[in-house]
Amino acid sequence: MDTSAQIASIDWQGRQLALEYAWVGAPSSEYPVVVFLHEGLGSLSMWKDFPAHFCTANGLRGLVFSRYAYGNSTARPAEEHWRPDFMHRQAIEVLPALFAQLGIERPWLFGHSDGGSIALLYAAHFPNEVSGVVTVAPHIFVEDISIANIRAAREAYLHGDLRSRLARHHADVDSAFWGWNDIWLDPAFRDWNIEDELAGITCPVIAIQGEDDEYGTLEQVHGIIRRISSARLCVLSQCGHSPHRDQPSELSREAAEFITTHRVYKNHTGDNHA
């Protein structure tokens, strides 16, 4: 990962947020920027070298950033509890502000887990503002397997070494963990579902998931395919919830082929073309 992280300041809900970000890959790429959206406990640094290697190998320019409450971005106050629409707010409010600040137009979105859900939500609400979506191990509704493993993560954070491992990647590790864990285990979140919103997506979409994903069944990606008829499905064998760690070569191959096949150029404003 490029360690030359910078800070973007945006206005959100009447306050200033500082979001850490870094550019990776080919600065003069002919393709739109690929924006990497991390998982629920992720950050810029937790992607490690995957975005840089992926973009450099395929002639792409990438933007990697830490969402609000993660990494070295503005921390979440301890008294602030997220609502079930927290991913919608990231997609509909924060991403447009960040893109405007950095001059990013019609990016590709490469999202993992919660970041994959945020990518889908952005594409659904801004269909003309995105070139395509690579959604990896996304959530489109809440499953028992997800809740069980998020409860297990809570125990590992309180009584195991998870807190110390995450602290390497977050300036305020409690901000990152409890924001995510509390809302996912909130009974009000059990009915969270974005399936109906997927119908608004018109850009190219590839939905990728490991067959051994411990945070969701394959019904998550099959549900995407049922609602976006043009979407492509990719299931990776011998792979859990984090394909960029378990199967980085396979993930890179599938995602790069999809992006470069849908040859959308930076300044193109009409339909996608090859």
Automatic annotation (TrEMBL):
<feature type="domain" description="AB hydrolase-1">
    <location>
        <begin position="32"/>
        <end position="141"/>
    </location>
</feature>
<protein>
    <submittedName>
        <fullName>Alpha/beta hydrolase</fullName>
    </submittedName>
</protein>
<dbReference type="InterPro" id="IPR000073">
    <property type="entry name" value="AB_hydrolase_1"/>
</dbReference>
<keyword id="KW-0378">Hydrolase</keyword>
<dbReference type="GO" id="GO:0016787">
    <property type="term" value="F:hydrolase activity"/>
</dbReference>
<dbReference type="Pfam" id="PF00561">
    <property type="entry name" value="Abhydrolase_1"/>
</dbReference>
<dbReference type="InterPro" id="IPR050266">
    <property type="entry name" value="AB_hydrolase_sf"/>
</dbReference>
<dbReference type="GO" id="GO:0016020">
    <property type="term" value="C:membrane"/>
</dbReference>
<dbReference type="InterPro" id="IPR029058">
    <property type="entry name" value="AB_hydrolase_fold"/>
</dbReference>
